[in-house]
């Protein structure tokens, strides 16, 4: 009897040893992953912390080499000057209007265009998509004069609506590409079954497919919002009134207003911190959809 149980015990011991070895290997991989993730997180977080610290220093210290004594001179004078003296909150509101309007318009048009390109078969669909993506490669500077004349003709210069239309134009190629590939991943049987139940094209899009393509819509919204929120040159070109300037234009004017060629890094750092807040809130709110949307835009062609 002991001769029969010996091979069984030996096999069980081998399985146990193999299981412990696999657990050690997984544990080692986890710690490597944790260390690498921590290092990468520090690479992204430390510059943000550095900007926050610099924004709390007096203007005369922000341009000097850092030292431990800087932490004893913390002040909110840069923020108070921007928020009270320069009334930057109006410019924050202007940027929010432009960015939210751009995100809403881009998501709406991209969703409809992506649905049409992914679900309807027509001659030249590939050429249409190629032309849209080709527009993504055209730099703004190349079409500056025609855009200026066009906005002037429609009386949209120095107007946030005109800025929203320009921003949406340059955000649409990316949005259409992502939404077209997102719709292509949705099984066609879902749409066919909804049509059997009597749903039309719009009803199928809104009620059946919309919940399935939210990741792509979130990715498009984040891209369009960040593009409009951080853009400087177009806003600086098409907006001249201080009451409707966006935040990047206002910060550019404030940090150079003291004397020619002199930059106020304290104002710039505090303005960057203010500008980060909406971006962080938006990303934290939509982050669970963001990676899914980028994946859908990258895997399907």
Features:
301 residues, mainly alpha, MetI-like fold, 13 helices, 77% helix, disordered C terminus
Blueprint (SSEs and pairs):
Blueprint: H1 2-55, H2 59-62, H3 77-85, H4 88-119, H5 125-135, H6 144-153, H7 160-185, H8 188-196, H9 201-209, H10 214-230, H11 233-238, H12 247-255, H13 265-299
Helix pairs in contact: 1-13, 3-13, 4-7, 4-10, 4-12, 5-7, 7-10, 7-13, 8-9, 10-13, 12-13
Folded structure, characterized:
- By secondary structure, the protein is an all-alpha fold.
- It has two domains: 2-55; 77-299, MetI-like (MetI-like fold).
- 77% of the residues lie in helices and 0% in strands.
- The chain is built from 13 helices and no strands.
- Helix 7 (160-185) packs parallel to helix 13, helix 10 (214-230) runs antiparallel to helix 13 (265-299) and helix 12 runs antiparallel to helix 13 (265-299).
- The longest helix has 54 residues, at 2-55.
